[in-house]
Amino acid sequence: MATRLTFFSSIFLVLLTSSNLVSSCVSPAISNHTFRLDCLCGPTHPPYAIPIYVEDVDLLQFAENLEYLEADFFLYGALGYGLDVVAPNLVIEGPPPIGGMKANLDNLMEGIITEFAYQEVGHLRALLLTVGAIPRPQLDLTSCNFPNIFDEAFGFQLDPPFDPYANSLNYMLASYVIPYMGLLLAGLLGVESGQDAVIRMYVYKRANITVYPYNHAVAEFTNRTSELRNRLAMCGIKDEGIIVPPELGAENRTSSNVLSANAYSISYSRTHPC
């Protein structure tokens, strides 16, 4: 599975692209040397279907599993219900998630996660139109699953078990865990990257706060999680926490790491070979 995942960025085609800028929509007024808008610019998406290679369809549909996870996790976290209520036509008769529940979010985070949730619904619609839909897999969103991930990241059992729904901070740390495979889909790149940036900025502002009731700061949670991602990927460094040694920071001069990037401050390669 890990080998298969490393091929993602090399086989993904552009799902949504921009056409050339329509310069004819702006024209100079001859009499007063000012500029005016002569027309309303049309949509920038191409008016024709973008071809997808047959051998790529199954990999794109595999990514739909992860979009289902994000959609239902965010919907339940913010609203207390999921795709079966919001967009039942998108689940393709897949079973409902197990254990989804509304998180104890403050007003700010509830609004943000609600937006994330509906964005993921839109992504599923885009994938359905592009490569066809697959039934939603059986998702287990119970709080008992996330402790296993953090226990593996830390190398020992946290006591008490980590509860992703307990508060806004816990929920955002759980969101940090979810793999943003949508970053590999060109048309979804902007929104998924934006979501990732919001999550990283949220936890960065709280980097030195101790996550109650554990004796570990937020920054350590992110570092341990990112290290786990790298171990599982078996492909070197592909992710970093929000605080890093200066030798891993921008131009070897910063410890802050709001945006994770390589030595040239370029997003990590997702192509094969690593």
Q: Give the N-to-C terminal Cα separation.
A: 15 Å
Separate helix tally: 9
Basic shape: globular
Strand content is under 5%
Q: What's the pLDDT, averaged over the residues?
A: 81
Total number of beta strands: 2
Write the H/E string, N to C: HHEEHHHHHHH
Structural class: mainly alpha
Radius of gyration: 21 Å
Major β-sheet strand ordering: 1-2
Instruction: List low-pLDDT spans.
Output: 1-40
Largest sheet: 2 strands, antiparallel
Number of domains: 1
What is the helix content? 40-55%
Keywords: Signal
Pfam families: Ferritin_2
Protein name: Desiccation-related protein PCC13-62
Signal peptide: 1-24
Can you give keywords for this protein?
274 residues; mainly alpha; two-stranded antiparallel ribbon; 2 strands; 2% strand; globular; Pigment-catalase-like; signal
Q: How would you summarize what this structure contains?
A:
42% of the residues lie in helices and 2% in strands. It has 274 residues and is mainly alpha-helical. The model is unreliable at 1-40 (pLDDT under 50).
